[in-house]
Fold this protein.
Amino acid sequence: MDLSFVIFVEVLYGVASLVLISAGLAVVFGMMKVINLAHGEFMMMGGYATITAVGYGVNVFVAMLIIAPLVVGLIGLVVERLVIRHLYGRLIDTMLATWGLSLVFIGLATMIFGNTTTGISTPIPGFAFGGYQVNGYNFFIIIVSILLVITMYAILRGTRAGLIARGTMQHSDMASALGYSSDRIYMMTFFCGSALSGLAGAVLAPLVGLVPTSGGAYIAKAFITVIAGGPSLIAGLVSSATSFGLVSQFFTFTISPVIGEVALLIAAVILLRTMPKGITGRFFKGKL
Amino acid sequence: MSRRASQDVTITLVVSAFLIWFLPLMISTYTLTVLVIYGMLGLSLGLIWGFGGILCFGQAAFFGLGAYTYAITAINIGESTLPMILAVLVPAVFAALLGAMMFYGRLTDVYLGVITLVVTLILFKFMNSTAGPQYAIGNARLGGFNGIPGFQTLNVPGDPSAYIWGDTYFYVCALALVIVFLLVTWLLRSSFGRIAVGIRENEVRMGLMGYNVAARKTMLFAIGAAIAGLAGALFANWGEIVTPNLFSLGQSAEIIIWCIVGGLGTRFGPIVGAAGLAYLKFMLGQQSMIDNTLIMGLILVLFVLFLPRGLVPAIETLLNSIIGHKKRKPKPHRMRRARHG
Amino acid sequence: MVETVLETSGLTMRFGGVIASDNVNFKLQARELRCLIGPNGAGKSTFFKCVTGLLKPTEGHVYMRGQEVTGWQTHQIASLGVGIKTQTPNVMDALSVHENIWLAARRFYSIVEARERADEIIERLALGAIARAQMGQLAHGERQRVELGIVAVANPWLVLLDEPAAGMSAQDVDRMTDIIHQLTRFAAVVIVEHDMQFIRSIAQTVTVFHQGAVLMEDSVENVMSDPQVRAVYLGKKA
């Protein structure tokens, strides 16, 4: 009983962290059909923003949940204005340019923070459950992810901005036809997407030591989750994160963490081969 | 047509003979060797991407596979001829299987990118995790992140004690690149190459004409992988060690940057891009003011934004306009980098 | 007896609950010229796509020269000697007109023969002046004409054209009519078309589609004067 609870939490944590890692990328891809390959570096910068802020004596939760998203969102805004907006509609070119940007950010972080691992301690202590030690911080991540999904759903469903966003997702000309400047919508979207990346990087930072190249560990997983999710933003994100989370945690428990990671990647290849339009291209059509 | 082909070969031979004589006067042959090898790796992606429209985010996978194949078989055999051949064949067969899976599934652009990237990551993660003694093929321990050192390096075929190294090894690599370059030239002039370009331009039309697009893309993909594998084996010989870093995403990214900077849709561009940027990186490595990665990234961003066609085509256009040379071809329509690209 | 080159039996295509093609039985004889007409959504294009292998029909069979080709891929069908032109011009933009046509010829002929065939077609279609020009720089009508050249150069015995006259000037349409007549000397031709003017000028037999099924099949005159067809085209110039 105790064991099954612990395993349940671990699996849930696996899914939640995938949702968290991919949310920023999913928003940008869903709205703008732009694959931001610097997404991992945005997360890395979220981590560094948190650590720096905590170093100045800011409360760790304020740093993670407010400062990091703001800082990274602003960086994203600058990136969108300087680079991305010149490349709209050129999917491959934006991928290449953002890949270049990711290298630029790695280089910058190396120059500023040095090539050593920095970290902050987990702000929530672990506790014993039956005979097992449970990482309390995992609960925090699960809760943040759930809140994130609910908030995204509420915004898309219930607000005017969400309505415009849904229109844009279905028809990129729709917003401009309705009299909204697509330029501004894209700017806002990229800001939100970047802020989400920053949030994810900040929240996950206490679990992993930060190095300038940390982003590389995230980008592939996020990329896979978003592409495999398919056209629907939230349904795609949740369904593909769940499938991959289950697969990778299953193999992690039965064999080893490395095999878990490899299994996730193999699952992605199989999934894309059988459903080239992603999970929501096949199921849950037309959902958010 | 045939006269122009012979002209092409003559120019290639004259230029490469000059470079092979001239460059060692400027740069050490040890550095030059790796530039030549990178040139070949750049050409391998330049072929499938520039002429076949297949953007592979994992060309490093074939490079690493070639290197590992060489190292593992060289340890077991103790002679280098068969390992060299296998280092070309194994990546080609692997690519043929992977390509068949992707192209017969009609996967394009982004999905192709994801899958090739993921396959590279799988190899990278797997190789990194093989540190234990249970991971061994024959006498060769895979060694995890430490890689495999101490294998038999290139020797005169049939005589394992006659090592080919130093200056001689540079000439061997340079010759190999010239041969590969000529083979690529021949391939692109053949019907197969012209059909590949047709497929790059419009897959649907080529299918309507009766061409089996999936089979042809798979074949081209495998040829690109074979060249990358050869480059990998040569690299293994040069470095005398193979590590999982050969499979890293950074390595794949660099190959793509070489092609963009040098110029897609040309044979010469990716080679120039590879050798030029690798040399630049080597020079930058000797200072510590500005981070290396930063400059590489900046170069990629700036090229995508301002010179997406790359250096070689841009210089060609520039020369043509300066000399006032009557252009043989009309100004090229901007090449399709990939579908919707 | 005249050979049947294209036949479908019970061809049905469903998308979810929508029946886009409903039990179509169709027969075409060698060197026949047939037009498929019908209002938007009548199922002409779906039928066309099922026959050319762009879609796999849910039910039914397609035969070409007696050979069952149901579910074959497009390139396999084209390899039989079937020339296909899709609705939107499908050409290789960065290549020259000559290269485009040569590629089509090369599929069925040796390198030398392919060049001869390409030269011949270019002359026949009066494309000589633009043979070395890049496809991407040509006007719409010229592109359509080159695409017909791509189809013709392979010497097909069955030609399937989806809206070849769409968006063309009157002069271009005249040229197109000429080319199609040339094609019918050796091949059976199926044309999916909206433009009634164009159909009057070339067709003998017309098949009318309505709501996925074949409504009637008769000569142009009879079809045009049929009250049912007029009703289907209500509000349209018939």
